[in-house]
Design a protein that fits this description.
Blueprint (H helix, E strand, L loop, with lengths): L4 H12 L1 E4 L7 E4 L1 H4 L2 H12 L13 E5 L2 H13 L2 E7 L7 E7 L4 E7 L8 E9 L3 H13 L2 E10 L5 H5 L4 E6 L1
Parallel strand pairs: 3-4, 3-7, 7-8, 8-9
Antiparallel strand pairs: 1-2, 4-6, 5-6
């Protein structure tokens, strides 16, 4: 039997993601995904694996929108939305959206931030998959979940390339199902 989509994607992550120590500040190990993005096969594998979280057991898409968090989440969420036949919605840093938006402030592993989502980006009742590159402390996902709920949408899951298990972000996310290609 062949490897699963997640196993193929995990192998691509192991091969192509580069650790950069002390970036953006001392003590942080940044996961540079740009080599993965530049590799067609690797990118194809991770998009397919991330999209699995937006499908039911028969492979049928179960989401109306895919939300990508700034900035690397944009890069991943847009092709995931295409793979699922869903719309893509960006969640931006404060002051980047041109129209009326909901805003939520939260703590990062090394800073604080505010995220915004256009008030009309998600219709009440729409099912939403949240996509990002890394689940760390869970603050970004929790804030995004709050933004989706403020629009009346229903978050159905989170899909990430990597989960930093030692930071316990899943606990902050709560009962929302989390699909991680790799836990490190």
């Amino acid at each position: 039997m062949g490897a699963t989509r997640t196993e193929v994607a995990r192998a691509a992550l192991e091969r192509l993601v580069v650790d950069v120590p002390d970036f953006p500040e001392p003590g942080v190990v940044f996961k540079d995904i740009t080599p993965l993005l530049a590799d067609h096969d690797g990118l194809t594998a991770v998009v397919a694996a991330l999209a699995e979280a937006g499908r039911d057991g028969d492979g049928t898409p179960v989401v109306d929108k895919v939300v990508g968090m700034e900035a690397r989440g944009f890069i991943l969420a847009a092709p995931v939305a295409l793979a699922l036949g869903a719309g893509f919605v960006p969640v931006r840093k404060a002051g980047k959206l041109p129209r009326e938006a909901h805003a939520v402030s939260y703590a990062l592993e090394y800073a604080e931030a505010t995220l915004e989502l256009h008030r009309d980006a998600i219709a009440p009742g729409e099912r939403v998959l949240l996509v990002d590159d890394v689940l760390a402390t869970g603050g970004t996902v929790r804030a995004t979940r709050e933004l989706v709920a403020a629009c009346g949408g229903t978050p159905v899951g989170v899909s990430v390339l990597m989960e930093l298990g030692f930071l316990a972000g899943r606990e902050v996310v709560g009962d929302l199902p989390v699909h991680s290609i790799a836990v490190i």
